[in-house]
From TrEMBL:
Tree of life domain: Bacteria
Lineage of origin: Bacteria, Pseudomonadati, Campylobacterota, Epsilonproteobacteria, Campylobacterales
One Pfam family it belongs to: PAS_9
Database matches in InterPro entries: CheY-like_superfamily, PAS, PAS-like_dom_sf, Sig_transdc_resp-reg_receiver, ST_Response_Regulator
UniProtKB keywords: Coiled coil, Phosphoprotein
SUPFAM superfamilies named in the record: CheY-like, PYP-like sensor domain (PAS domain)
Gene3D superfamilies per the UniProt record, alphabetical: 3.40.50.2300, PAS domain
Protein name (database record): Response regulator
């Protein structure tokens, strides 16, 4: 593996060597590669430096044969304080007698003196890579622990064995169901099943778990007090080192209140739509009634107008008839005047003609009066009709505006649906993140999360 200087710069080491020349030269060289290099001239000083800087030392590189306190005795003392710190012994061939005891002290590695700097750096690089991976795992475990805390606070967590018997439950499960942990542990997973829930649902769930498949669905559950709560349930399996199913974990989100709000919103929307439809229907009915009344009034006005027109034509016809008779009488009068022997008859005809003239004159006056009267009535009908048309148009405009306002209510409903869908998408995104953590987590990680 090539040496990664960035990884080496993360390390802080304690170098213990009684040879001053070797200690000085090697420590100066190592300072170019490591973040911090502590040095000690014997085991006693090395132990003191470690105890004062325990949290700042990742690796100990030490000689074995040293005055005051040997490397073996120093490590024994350190192991009493920290059993995990990595220790490398630099030893000569003559130190083989100490190697067996060093192994008992869980020494990570040993190298032969004189130290090959390339071999040492390669060994340190491997250790740095392992420590960095441990660091990343620790960070991930911290994050997963936070996710576990959030999950435990907001979700029901139930762990079962391969036979779907409950082995662990969290506090939220007990709080919502009303049962204690002692009452739930050992029960079958469907112990909380609501009587209305189908057994086929649980059969499908159990089959998926036995086939190492994840399961997701909605469960209707019963509380200890015969109440009801609904959950959005996801179940995954946990495998052992052999890849066999060992346990299953169910994470359920209580959606009882959410479903109630959703049903309430749906009822409210249905009510609003019904009211809008009724108002629209009533508005259309009122509009049709007004239009029909207008049509009837217009038809009556047209009928009266045509009747007046017919009466006018009738009187004109009568006037023309009397005018024709008058002309005929004039012709007869002229004929009578030519006949002197019929003078008396002529006088009589003259008198009758005079009477006819008076009748014609009266008829003409009457016809003119009737024309004037019908003209006035016609104009009055036209004015009244125009006024009624204007009023109906004004009402029609108001009804149109009212109808458009009803359509605006529909737009508001659509906007409400849009924001509701967006809120649901955000909720689904958070749930997807939780599912991904459960899907890709290893058994070791899941055990660390859920104890």
């Amino acid at each position: 593996m090539p040496i990664d200087k960035k990884l080496l710069k993360r390390l802080r080491i304690l170098y213990v060597e009684d040879d001053a020349v070797i200690r000085t030269e090697l420590s100066q060289l190592l300072s170019n590669f490591f973040e911090k290099v502590y040095t000690a001239e014997d085991g006693k000083e090395g132990l003191e430096i470690y105890l004062h800087n325990q949290d700042n030392i990742d690796i100990i590189l030490s000689d074995i044969n040293m005055p005051k306190l040997s490397g073996i005795d120093m490590v024994k003392a350190i192991r009493g304080v920290d059993p995990k710190v990595l220790i490398i012994f630099a030893t000569a061939h003559s130190d083989n007698e100490f190697l067996a005891e060093a192994i008992k002290l869980k020494i990570h590695e040993y190298i032969i003196k004189p130290i090959d700097i390339r071999q040492l750096l390669s060994l340190m690089n491997d250790i740095a890579a392992v420590l960095y991976q441990d660091f990343l795992i620790e960070q991930k475990n911290k994050e997963l622990s936070k996710y576990k805390e959030v999950t435990d606070l907001n979700n029901i967590v139930i762990e079962t064995n391969i036979h779907m018997k409950i082995t662990k439950v969290n506090d939220l499960c007990c709080k919502i169901s009303g049962y204690t942990k002692e009452e739930l542990i050992g029960q079958d997973f469907k112990f909380l099943k609501h009587p209305e829930s189908s057994n086929d649902l649980y059969i499908k769930m159990y089959a998926d778990v036995l086939n190492n498949k994840s399961w997701h669905g909605t469960l209707k559950n019963s509380t200890k007090e015969k109440g009801t709560f609904t959950t959005d349930c996801s179940m995954i399996t946990i495998l052992n080192d052999a890849g066999e199913i060992e346990d299953a974990i169910s994470i359920q989100k209580d959606i009882t209140e959410e479903l109630a709000k959703k049903r309430e919103m749906q009822r409210a929307l249905m009510k609003d739509k019904s009211e809008i439809f009724i108002r629209s229907k009533e508005g259309n009915a009122e509009q049709h009634t007004i239009i029909n009344d207008l049509k009837m009034k217009l038809e009556d006005a047209n009928e009266e107008y045509f009747k007046a027109q017919r009466d006018t034509d009738k009187y004109i016809y009568i006037a023309e008839k009397y005018s024709l008779e008058n002309r005929n009488l004039k012709s007869e009068l002229a004929s009578y005047r030519r006949n002197a022997d019929k003078h008396s008859t002529s006088l009589k005809l003259i008198k009758e003609n005079s009477d006819l003239r008076l009748d014609i004159k009266r008829l003409k006056i009457k016809i003119e009066d009737m024309k004037t009267k019908f003209e006035k009535e016609k104009k009055q009908i036209e004015v009244n009709s125009q006024i009624e048309l204007d009023e109906l148009n004004e009402k029609f405009v108001k009804l149109t505006q009212k109808y458009e306002s009803i359509e605006t209510d529909d737009v508001l409903v659509q906007k409400l649906e849009y924001w509701k869908e967006k809120a649901n998408n955000e909720s689904n995104r958070v749930e997807t993140l939780e599912k991904q953590i459960m899907t890709y987590a290893t058994k070791e990680t899941m055990n660390k999360i859920f104890g």
